[in-house]
Inverse folding.
């Protein structure tokens, strides 16, 4: 029984258990002394030792159960331990009472049947359970890798945008400057034909710069990339034809991919509002709620918007790709509310 | 006119410097970052700073912030911000910044239109305004979406004149662009101010501010 504490899941010294062991030892020793003083006949003190040991074993078992963190199968394992302990107790009683015919066989068979039934029940339930757990793990993994992939994609897009800005765009701008200077000289020289050619070349270069600019803006509008969602939402509000109120409480900057999605939800919803309910007051709200970025765009118009419209469907796909949810409430007379919930990532 | 250029791309910086020198503009200093601009402004007290929006270290809007700060240090400093994109928010911040000098916000490729660019440089250095037509177009386009009654009352010609006014051009410059007489432009301008209910403003800068204030306030 002295080996029992070592088997505990924790090796921290337990004062109560130590005291119990010491007390048992003292009582046992005292009884043994009494037995010796009374003439050392039949060693009846063995029953006292046995009782003390059973109490210690129960204490140890209870302590182990309490200290084991809850996890699947804990109750099952505890039940098996109790059955095994009862077998040991039966065997000990048989041994102490003279080791005659091995009667503990019968209760042990009973314990065995009980343990087998228990195991059968538990495994029957656990098999489909473990399948479900695997599925949950797989979904977790897929969600993680997809978000990761989207995030990497968003970062790459922003890097491409920056490379365009610092590479091709700069060269094209330098080109227009040089062409412009050539134009000025040709004007002075009066070479009209060459001048027209050079001017045409500069117009082409300017058009290319314009196209690159539109491309970059589609990836991430400058104000969003530079200053984040709050500034971008306010800029959208100011530029909207509808009166817009912007209310933002965010702890930090969400991942770029989430930021972009939220931005386009706001932009598209504001465009819809000014198109379908001109003059209606619009309120844009951004909040962190339990690891979700919640975007609300609500107007006080007459409601009745079509949630299946192509703009909203595009937004829904964008949001759902991030494992978010987009809902539209537009009851007659209640205005229209677009609500997007986006996992903040990380 | 004493000018400082702040641009981190050497290719562009040298291009602008060469262009300005060809037009007898005195480029007193060149810088690559916001610190450089502030140092030059404290030391040289230039008349005009031509500043790129995106500058180190984060390459976002440092140039704009630095320009606004430079105007606090040296209020008569005129600022012409060059950018590869139009951002109305930044235009608004620049226009509402402290300082008495002129203000410009233009797309970088406009530098290639040498005459218009030099025109803008002189206008801004002289205390006027030069806004890129894209900025103005965006403001007016947004107004169109609202089907604003007052703007609707403007004739197409008046609309053209309004856009050129918002860019910061004088009546004489507008007359040249539209190939009409100065008197005709004056008539259009008076009509526009009346239709929009704007107080008649003296001076180019105030005129632009009045137009922009109208476009923004009713937006």
């Amino acid at each position: 029984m002295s080996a029992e504490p070592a088997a505990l899941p924790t090796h921290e010294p337990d004062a109560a258990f130590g005291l119990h062991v010491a007390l048992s030892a003292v009582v046992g020793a005292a009884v043994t002394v009494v037995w010796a003083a009374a003439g050392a006949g039949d060693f009846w003190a063995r029953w006292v030792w046995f009782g003390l040991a059973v109490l210690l074993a129960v204490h140890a078992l209870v302590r182990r159960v309490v200290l084991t963190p809850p996890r699947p199968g804990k109750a099952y394992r505890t039940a098996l331990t109790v059955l095994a302990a009862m077998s040991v107790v039966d065997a000990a009683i048989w041994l102490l009472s003279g080791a005659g015919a091995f009667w503990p066989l019968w209760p042990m068979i009973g314990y065995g049947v009980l343990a087998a039934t228990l195991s059968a029940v538990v495994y029957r339930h656990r098999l489909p359970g473990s399948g479900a757990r695997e599925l949950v793990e797989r979904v977790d993994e897929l969600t993680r890798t997809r978000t990761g992939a989207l995030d990497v994609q968003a970062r790459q897009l922003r890097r491409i945008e920056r490379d365009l800005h610092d590479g091709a765009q700069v060269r094209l701008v330098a080109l227009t400057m040089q062409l412009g200077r050539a134009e000025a000289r040709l004007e002075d020289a009066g070479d009209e034909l060459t001048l027209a050619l050079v001017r045409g070349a500069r117009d082409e270069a300017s058009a290319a710069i314009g196209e690159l600019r539109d491309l970059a803006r589609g990836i991430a509008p400058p104000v969003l990339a530079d200053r984040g969602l709050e500034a971008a939402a306010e800029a959208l509000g100011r530029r909207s034809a509808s009166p817009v109120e912007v209310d933002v409480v965010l702890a930090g900057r969400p991942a770029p991919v989430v930021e972009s999605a939220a931005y386009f939800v706001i932009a598209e919803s504001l465009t819809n509002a000014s198109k379908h309910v001109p003059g209606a007051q619009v309120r844009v709200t951004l909040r962190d709620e339990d690891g979700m970025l919640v975007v609300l765009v609500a107007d006080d118009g007459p409601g009745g918007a079509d949630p299946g419209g192509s703009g909203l469907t595009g937004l829904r796909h964008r949001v759902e790709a991030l494992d978010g949810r987009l809902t539209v409430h537009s009851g007659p007379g209640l205005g229209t509310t677009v609500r997007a919930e986006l996992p903040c990532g990380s | 006119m004493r000018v400082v250029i702040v641009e981190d791309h050497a290719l562009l910086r040298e291009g602008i410097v060469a262009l300005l020198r060809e037009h007898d503009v005195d480029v007193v200093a060149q810088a690559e970052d916001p610190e450089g601009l502030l140092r030059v402004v404290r030391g040289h007290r230039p008349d005009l700073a031509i500043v790129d929006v995106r500058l180190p270290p984060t390459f976002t809007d440092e140039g704009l912030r630095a320009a606004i700060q430079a105007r606090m240090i040296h209020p008569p400093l005129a600022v012409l911000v060059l950018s590869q994109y139009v951002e109305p928010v930044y235009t608004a911040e620049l226009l509402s910044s402290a300082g008495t000098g002129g203000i410009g916000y233009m797309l970088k490729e406009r530098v290639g239109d040498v005459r218009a660019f030099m025109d803008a440089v002189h206008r801004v250095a002289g205390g006027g305004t030069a806004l890129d037509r894209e900025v103005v177009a965006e403001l007016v386009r947004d107004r169109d979406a609202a089907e604003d009654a007052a703007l609707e009352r403007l004739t197409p010609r008046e609309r053209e004149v309004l856009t050129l006014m918002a860019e910061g051009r004088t009546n004489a410059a507008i007359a040249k662009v539209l190939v009409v007489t100065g008197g005709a432009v004056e008539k259009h301008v008076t009509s526009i101010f009346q239709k929009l209910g704007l107080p008649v403003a003296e001076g180019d800068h105030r005129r632009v501010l009045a137009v922009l204030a109208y476009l923004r306030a009713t937006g």
Summary: The CA atoms of residues 184 and 190 of chain A lie 10 Å apart. Chain A has three domains: 15-130, 139-219, 228-343. The first helix of chain A runs from residue 15 to 37. Chain A has a mean pLDDT of 85.
